[in-house]
Amino acid sequence: MKFYDCETAPSPRRVRMFLAEKGISVETVQVDLGNQEQHSEAFGKINPFHSVPALELDNGVVLNTSVGICHYIEAAHPEPALIGADPMKRGQIMDLDARIEQEGFLAVGEAFRNRAKSFKNNALVGPHQHAQIPELITRGKLRTQQFMHWLDQLLEHNEFIAGSDISIADITAKWIKVEPEEEQVHLNRWFSEINSRPSAKV
Amino acid sequence: MKFYDCETAPSPRRVRMFLAEKGISVETVQVDLGNQEQHSEAFGKINPFHSVPALELDNGVVLNTSVGICHYIEAAHPEPALIGADPMKRGQIMDLDARIEQEGFLAVGEAFRNRAKSFKNNALVGPHQHAQIPELITRGKLRTQQFMHWLDQLLEHNEFIAGSDISIADITAKWIKVEPEEEQVHLNRWFSEINSRPSAKV
Is residue A153 within 8 Å of A82, Cβ to Cβ? Predict the structure, then answer.
């Protein structure tokens, strides 16, 4: 198994945290995004989507989304469970993970990629060029606030996002990297807890 | 187990197709979205997100996204596998399902919800009001074309989206309901096959 990573890029971090919480170490290859190595012919043969993270299995199959890679790892190494040890927990965790992706991750991405100069004609993740739309900066920021408010309320009752144990939902939320407001006490408590784990350092 | 459905709404159809492919029938309650029944106090007690689909388990826990519900059903009723019978297939299927959601489902939704009069201040799924942005109609249509082109190419080599068996990735793609261009022969072949299955009628 070989993990194609880039230490300075946000996307592979979700997989690194997932692996760290599982206690698994994998042979890792750094792909130099700064020098556009992901666009090389050689890397295109490994991952035709020219993106990291990618996980090459021993039989040569390559997984190429952080979601797909995490599900593979969960099924191959069930303990400790991060996507639910039983059907009910799997459903609840995937409910929350979907909501965090849709309402958190996409909101933050919308505000950032429509503003940053380096994403001028690349406002959406993926191989196609799309121009920035200034209205999406405002909308993305508003959606981010709404998301943080929802998460703060949820964490009033739950130690971790899906209950008493850490799950992929916490990893996805931590990965988004949004700073809570001072008055969001539950979110702040959760952030300190997550940030104190060894997996937050990877 | 009780399934909160609305026959005329698109979102619950993904779960209905998933259940049909599993050969499972569930006690079903129709929620009358036409008369805003989802916003009633009574329904809010069942699903605080005021949305369908929702699945109430026998212990009272309610799942409330189509993704979470499908993962619950997959874990509770593993046969026939729709999210992968082994770790590698689960990873590959989730890779493809994530791509179909991100690049297909969101693209179609973007074009539709920013145009339709009935979504004037409700351009995003969820409880918050967001104004329509006309530029997203054009962008959504372009992204949809790019998505269909990718899917057509993928289906040149695969009978179903993730290989020789139907999976949640096919259900998600069928659920999006985009009509292929005449020259997209692989996509047309796949559409005919999917549409001839009993699960396409639910």
Answer: no
Partners of residue A76 in chain B, C-beta under 8 Å: 87
By C-alpha distance, the chain A residue nearest B73 is A87
Strands B62-63 and A27-30: unpaired
Name the helix (H) or strand (E) containing A20: helix A11-22
pLDDT digits (tens, 9 = 90+) for A87-139: 999 999 999 999 999 999 988 888 888 898 888 888 887 778 899 999 999 99
Pick from B67, B95, B125: CB nearest A94: B67
Decide if A130 contacts A123 (C-beta within 8 A). yes
B71 vs A55: CB contact, 8 Å cut-off? no
Q: Is A140 helix (H, G, I), strand (E, B) or coil?
A: helix
CB contact under 8 A, B91 and A75: yes
Contact assignment for B102 to A88 by CB distance below 8 Å = no
Mean pLDDT of chain B: 94
Complex ipTM value: 0.94
Compute the nearest-CA separation of A84 from chain B (Å).
10
Residues in chain B with CB shorter than 8 Å from the CB of A82 are none
CB burial of B26-57 (b: ≥16 within 10 Å; e: otherwise) equals: eeeeebebeeebbeeeebeebbeebbbbbbbb
Query: Whole-prediction pTM value?
Result: 0.94
